[in-house]
C-alpha cells in the first residue's frame, strides 16, 4: 500500500482529494472543523517536503450547478488558519481559472479549488473531466475516506492518469489500517457490536463479519426481529416480519461458525415512541402489547459488559437504543463506557458507519476509543467486505 510517506514532494505539485464537506452556519462560518484538521497532516507533509498542494473537494449537494451558497470560498480562511498558510482560491476546479492559478503556484503554497460538484461530470465519473483535474498535479493523493465508496471523477477516475504517482494520504491510510485491524489482523477475541434500527440494513455486514469475529452483540431495533423469530412476544417494538427467517438463518450460520451471538435479555419498554412515555423494564420476549422496547435493560448491559471487557478487538456500529431521546440513551452510553474501559485495558476499538459516529460524538467518546471512522457510508461498505473504488484506484 503506497502512502504519502513513500514520496518526496520537493518541487512537485500534489493534487489532493480532501473531504472538506463541512457544516456551515447561516453566515457561512464552519461549525465543525474536524474534517479540515483531519486533512492537515497530509497537507503539511507535502509543504514540508518543499512541494505545493492543490486541494479539491465537494461541499453539499449542488447537483452539478453553480450554487454560491456551497462555494468552498467560504471555508478558505478557516483552512488557512488551521494549516497555518494563507490558502489561495480558484473560482473553478477546471478550465483557465484553475489552470492559471495552478501555473502560478510556488513551492510551499496551497491552492483550494472551487466545489467539484458544481460540475455534473464529477459525480458521473466523467473521464475528460477527471483528465482536466489530473493536469493540475504531478502526484495524486486521495485523503478522503468519506467519498472513497464513490466512483467519482476526483475520487477514483482521476487516479488512472497518475500511473506510479498516486498514493493514500495519512487519513485514508489510517482508515484502511483500522478496518484491517478489525477485519483481518485483530487480536482475539474479536467482538462486533451491531445496533441500529433494522436487520435489513445490516444484513450484509453481519454475513461478512461472521467469518471474522468471535462474538456478535446484537442490540437496538434489530433485536426484536430475532426475538420474535425465536417465538418471543415483542409487543409494538420495531420488527421486520419478513426478515425473521433471515434472522434464524444468521443464528444458524453463527453457530456453525462458532460465533457466540449475544442478544438482549431485557429491555426498557415504553408505551409510546416518545421521550416522556411511561416506561418499564421487561424481559425481551415478554413485551406486552402497546409497549415497545427502546433501550437495553440492566441484565443485558451486564452481559454485554462482560463480553466487551474480555475482548481484544472491538467494532461498534449502531446504537443499542433510541439514543436521540435522553430517556433511551443510557444503554448506548453504557456500551461506550465499556468500550472505553476495554480500550484502556489494551483493546483496539473502532467505531464507525452510519449514525454511530453521531452517538459517539454526542456522548464524548471520541477520544476514548482507538479510532473513530470519518466515513459513514464508506465504512458500512468496507464492513460489508466490498473493496471501495477510491481505494482500488490507488492500489491499481
Ligand atoms: P442505523 O442508522 O441503522 O445505525 O440506526 C440508527 C437508529 O436506530 C437510531 O436513530 C436509533 O434511534 C434507532 N434505534 C435504535 N434502537 C431502536 C429501537 N429499539 N427502536 C427503534 N429505533 C431504534
Determine the mean pLDDT: 96
Distance between the termini: 10 Å
Which parts are unreliable, with pLDDT below 50 for 5 consecutive residues or more? Answer: none
- Tell the overall outline: elongated
Q: What is the topology, as strand order, of the major beta sheet? A: 3-4-2-1-5-6
Largest sheet: 6 strands, parallel
State the helix count.
14
The strand count comes to: 17
Helix content: 25-40%
In this entry the ligands are: adenosine monophosphate
Rg is 23 Å
Considering the chains and any ligands shown, give keywords for the structure.
396 residues; alpha/beta; six-stranded parallel sheet; 14 helices; 35% helix; binds adenosine monophosphate
What does the model show?
The strands form four sheets. The chain has a six-stranded parallel β-sheet with strand order 3-4-2-1-5-6. A six-stranded parallel β-sheet has the order 10-8-7-15-16-17, with helices on both faces. By secondary structure, it is an alpha/beta fold. It contains 14 helices and 17 strands. The model has no long low-confidence stretch (mean pLDDT 96). The protein has helices at 34-49, 76-83, 95-104, 120-124, 127-134, 170-183, 203-209, 223-229, 244-257, 298-309, 330-344, 356-362, 376-383, 389-395; strands spanning 13-17, 52-56, 88-90, 110-113, 139-142, 166-168, 190-194, 215-218, 233-234, 260-262, 266-270, 279-283, 286-287, 292-296, 313-317, 348-351, 371-372. 35% of the residues lie in helices and 17% in strands. Residues 195-197, 201, 220-221, 238, 293-294, 318-319, 321-322, 324, 354-355 line the site of adenosine monophosphate.
